[in-house]
């Protein structure tokens, strides 16, 4: 129970110190995101990549700093529960007029759980549910920007309004030909609206006030509103080799936006004073996308994780099915389980591994997953949520699953009354394993999946990632038909690998040998040996060799490695190439 009176003056000081820690974090987070505009204007792609990776580390650093300061100044881990209740009440009071209250609540949870054992908590102590509303938060400072800008064109002035949507972002530098680009956008809009389009009284364009930066692109994100219809859109702005800008495409509708904000892509950098307002705007464009995933896409993955856990608890309360061993081939280093009614899988690192994985360690696997978190995922590697000390109701586990965890992951399992607590777990979006998908696929689905598989590997290669284990079972198919990689325990940077051609045998004994007769270094890779493991199905082999035969040639991999080492940063298009306006837009 909460105390009736706030009697300990230390409680306010602790709450204020905690909020100061969060404010420092968000100031640094926002500053790094805001500088993405300057990096884009300079074409500093390597700087953009470094900033993207470093920004992910900001949160944990500030949490650690805050926890250490509270322990140093107040011996916080020894304080009584009654005092912590008072701290929470003061903290809520401090958030009433805050511009990021939901993020600050998550920061409070992170700091306190960092200092105290999980058994110390009750639902009235941490923010299991939000305490401060995020609706209608406004920044009333004179120099502040609104969340979005609204334009009110007529059918005849639509081209001018679209031009102003672009120029209001005040990018430093010139466009190749902005009038031509806007005309291309307008032609696409007109084709979509149709000849019988009528502008209603409320016809308008709403555009979020900050550009969305990722990889080598800047995205204008907004929506057309006409009568009762709303049509979301995004305009990718790219920079050519001469440093001039051009609009590359027009993305239309919820499905296009879902691909742009996919869980398999790197986080955006966006300058936001009120992130909840951005999330609300984006949710109006993508109502099928959970708020947790929108926060993740904006780089606020810690709060996204918090929202995900709330959604998970809500789902558990309103479902009755049981956790089971996930369908498919069991992994050698990860134990994977799911809840059939919930669209995610849960992954545990096993305590021991078979001989072929003898050099694998828990810390090595964690580093691989962190690498993926910080790297450009190019739409081909699933994002993961990492949790510690997650409690599950014991009765919701199939006995076979519980036995598997007790056998393979005893160090991660803790008994706690009617619950079991998993000390460390990764959670990923559930997909259909590619090997299972191929078994039941129709001919046209088979062809699409094999082509997508090869494209996924090529995208990873361009992003300096070698998947390591390229078996079909390590890839999944999304609801949009995209093939995404999700097994990270063997990934390496492409530039750390040595791609070799199998040497010619020197004599008949070597040619007939069932054993490898040539020396193999620890990071040597022989692409021509992939075929026997991947292409046993004649139908699959025919499609693969038609579209992706170069993946079996060491020269393909060597050329990409040399290109990356020379400093080239690949282009990533989160939309199909046929959606681009054409190469003429670049020159």
UniProtKB/TrEMBL annotation:
Domain Isocitrate dehydrogenase kinase/phosphatase (AceK) kinase span(s) in chain numbering: 321-576
Top-level taxon of origin: Bacteria
EC number: 2.7.11.5, 3.1.3.-
Any one GO MF annotation of this record: protein serine/threonine kinase activity
GO biological process: glucose metabolic process; glyoxylate cycle; tricarboxylic acid cycle
Occurrences of domain Isocitrate dehydrogenase kinase/phosphatase (AceK) regulatory (ranges): 15-319
Main location: cytoplasm
Cellular compartment(s): Cytoplasm
Name of the protein this chain belongs to: Isocitrate dehydrogenase kinase/phosphatase
Protein species of origin: Roseateles toxinivorans
């Amino acid at each position: 129970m909460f105390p009736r009176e706030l009697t300990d003056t230390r409680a306010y000081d602790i709450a204020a110190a905690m909020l100061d820690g969060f404010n420092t974090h968000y100031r640094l987070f926002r500053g790094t995101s805001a500088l993405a505009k300057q990096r884009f204007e300079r074409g500093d792609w390597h700087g953009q990549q470094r900033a993207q990776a470093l920004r992910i580390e900001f949160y944990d650093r500030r949490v650690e700093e805050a926890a250490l300061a509270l322990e140093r100044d107040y011996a916080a881990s020894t304080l009584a529960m009654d005092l912590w209740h008072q701290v929470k009440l003061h903290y809520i009071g401090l958030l009433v007029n805050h511009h990021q209250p939901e993020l600050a609540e998550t920061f409070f949870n992170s700091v306190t759980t960092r200092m105290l054992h999980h058994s110390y908590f009750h639902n009235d102590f941490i923010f299991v549910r939000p305490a401060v509303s995020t609706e209608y938060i406004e920044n009333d400072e004179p120099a502040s920007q609104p969340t979005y800008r609204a334009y009110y064109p007529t059918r005849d002035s639509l081209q001018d309004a679209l031009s102003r949507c672009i120029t209001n972002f005040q990018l430093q530098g010139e466009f190749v030909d902005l009038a031509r680009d806007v005309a291309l956008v307008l032609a696409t809009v007109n084709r979509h609206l149709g000849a019988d389009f009528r502008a209603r009284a409320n016809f308008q364009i709403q555009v979020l006030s900050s550009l969305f930066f990722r990889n080598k692109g800047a995205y204008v994100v907004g929506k057309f509103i006409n009568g009762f219809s709303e049509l979301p859109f995004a305009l990718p702005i790219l920079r050519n080799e001469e440093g001039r800008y051009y609009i590359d495409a027009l993305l239309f509708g919820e499905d296009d936006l879902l691909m742009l904000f996919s869980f398999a892509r790197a986080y955006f950098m966006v300058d936001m004073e009120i992130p909840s307002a951005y999330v609300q705007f984006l949710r109006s464009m993508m109502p099928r996308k959970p708020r947790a995933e929108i926060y993740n896409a904006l780089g606020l993955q810690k709060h996204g994780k918090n929202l995900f856990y709330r959604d998970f608890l809500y789902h558990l309360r309103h479902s009755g099915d049981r956790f089971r061993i996930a369908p498919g081939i069991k992994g050698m280093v990860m134990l994977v389980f799911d809840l059939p009614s919930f669209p995610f899988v849960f992954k545990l690192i096993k305590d021991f591994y078979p001989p072929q994985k003898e050099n694998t360690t828990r810390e090595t696997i964690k580093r691989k997953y962190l690498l993926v978190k910080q790297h450009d995922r190019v739409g081909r590697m699933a994002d993961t949520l990492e949790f510690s000390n997650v409690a599950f109701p014991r009765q919701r586990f199939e006995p076979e699953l519980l036995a598997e965890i007790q056998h393979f992951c005893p160090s991660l399992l803790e008994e706690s009354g009617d619950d079991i607590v998993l000390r460390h777990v990764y959670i990923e979006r559930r997909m259909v394993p590619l090997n299972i998908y191929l078994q039941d696929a129709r001919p046209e689905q088979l062809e699409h999946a094999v082509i997508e598989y090869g494209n996924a590997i090529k995208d990873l290669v361009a992003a300096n990632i070698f998947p390591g284990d390229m078996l079909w079972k390590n890839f999944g198919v999304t609801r949009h038909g995209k093939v995404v990689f999700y097994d990270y325990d063997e990934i390496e940077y492409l530039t750390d690998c040595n791609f070799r051609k199998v040497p010619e045998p020197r004599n008949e004994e070597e040619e007939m040998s069932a054993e490898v007769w040539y020396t193999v270094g620890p990071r040597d890779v022989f692409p021509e040996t992939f075929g026997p493991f991947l292409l046993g199905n004649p139908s699959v082999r025919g499609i693969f060799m038609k579209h992706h035969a170069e993946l079996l040639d060491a020269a393909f991999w060597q050329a990409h490695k040399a290109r990356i080492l020379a400093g080239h940063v690949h282009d990533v298009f989160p939309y199909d190439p046929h959606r681009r306006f054409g190469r003429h837009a670049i020159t």
